[in-house]
């Protein structure tokens, strides 16, 4: 039986297997290999019981965004196809969690502006630098380092808007998304439209956005047919289960009643029901090679050899290096750091104990001396339905990121009690919570988020060349290290790779596709 092998059973690997299952006939096999004993990767929901109450805690990602982007739509369509509609719980656009997000600055929670009304009511101290930054960009002559193909987010924002805008605002946002420092993160990779506007414009970044819009329209024209078909399919889909889609339209974010792991669990269960799909867990791949018949071979820890017409590799970069040994060397593999994050879930035995309502707060670089935390999520406020009506408040404190080793030592050896004490201290100092919680539980997610550091796009091109040279052209890559680390980015990358880039009608020939070309093209600088 012709076979496609997927390496990695996180959300990318599971999504890839799902999309293959929609397109392949039962005469083509799919084998998904996961080295650990559980599927879902960093999507992990635990059940806890304390104070006579049972509740859930999220150890990784916790919510999904709604909206009209391809990424958001792809996840919603997957939820629909998996018949998880009745499990979905939402945060309405009018909810405090949708409207209120905070930055901890000068010892206080500063509510981020949500519209022009904020100009009337007054900007909080953390944000007062922003109007000055806008004026600076509009009045400062072009100072783009045109000889460079990239720069850090810190350098870019400081050059155009002033250092305080990065120290107070951008650094906090990047702590929340990437758990990394803007002084090392790539402006080209993570702020591409703004970085490109600065290069294309003659009178500042903001004025250059019009030119970027033209470039974007020209690029999207090549995908006009795909976009038209996707919109038609979505329109037809929305005629079914209209109540679900109307609820989504009125919401800013969502998850599932029993936690985000509901999505990965349903994917795994559905895939296991297919006769042509085999999931192998607890057996890491130990070698990859070309067999005597020219097909790709994956060797597992128990000695089993799986022969495949094609391999889709969703492993993190450090695992790719381990798998391919001395041949795995290119700048993306060698120079991409991963951030480690400690997640400390804290539960209190009564409702509404935070001084403000909202999604939570982030800590910028400007407040680093006052906080060991990256931020805190108000879980019970964001999705109160997950509390199940219990008299409880759930919070999640994030620690570590760019300062993990500096503050706590090695992620492998840091005492759990230390992290829990630091989290409770943060809640006392930053939220004034002095009552004793009913439950505290710390988990270290070591090397969980790839850092898209300066020069990332050039290194991605080097990775493409390396991938195309592996396993006789029978391997491609998908995952958080390439198209973005968020769950929706992983899912859309998997869908596009299966539906648009692989030739599933001719698996006997090497595919000779990396999985990276469309991503790389999206960051090209117009000439």
Explained architecture:
By secondary structure, this protein is an alpha/beta fold. It is 39% helix and 21% strand. It has 21 helices and 20 strands. The chain has a seven-stranded mixed β-sheet. A hairpin with a 2-residue loop joins strand 7 (101-105) and strand 8.
The unreliable regions are none
Question: Tally the helices: what do you get?
Answer: 21
Which overall shape is indicated by the principal axes computed on the Cα atoms?
globular
Measured on Cα atoms, how large is the radius of gyration?
23 Å
Provide the β-strand percentage band.
15-25%
What is the CA–CA distance across the termini? 47 Å
- Strand neighbour order, sheet with most strands: 8-7-16-17-18-15-19
Biggest β-sheet: count, sense, barrel?
7 strands, mixed
Class of secondary structure makeup:
alpha/beta
Question: What is the mean predicted local confidence, pLDDT?
Answer: 95
Would you count the extended β strands for me? 20
Estimated helix fraction: 25-40%
Put the structure in a nutshell.
The chain is of the alpha/beta class and 527 residues long.
Keywords:
single chain, 527 residues, alpha/beta, 7-stranded mixed β-sheet, 5-stranded parallel β-sheet, 21 helices
Write the layout of secondary structure elements.
Blueprint: E1 3-7, H1 11-23, E2 29-34, E3 45-50, E4 53-58, E5 64-65, H2 70-81, E6 88-92, H3 96-99, E7 101-105, E8 108-111, H4 117-121, H5 129-139, H6 153-161, H7 163-178, H8 187-190, H9 192-200, H10 205-221, H11 224-237, H12 242-249, E9 251-256, H13 261-272, E10 277-281, E11 285-290, E12 296-300, E13 305-308, E14 310-313, H14 317-324, H15 331-335, E15 338-348, E16 360-362, E17 373-377, H16 379-382, E18 393-400, H17 404-408, H18 416-431, E19 439-450, H19 456-468, E20 475-477, H20 487-501, H21 517-521
Parallel strand pairs: 1-2, 1-14, 2-10, 7-16, 14-20
Antiparallel strand pairs: 3-4, 5-9, 6-9, 7-8, 11-12, 12-13, 15-18, 15-19, 16-17, 17-18
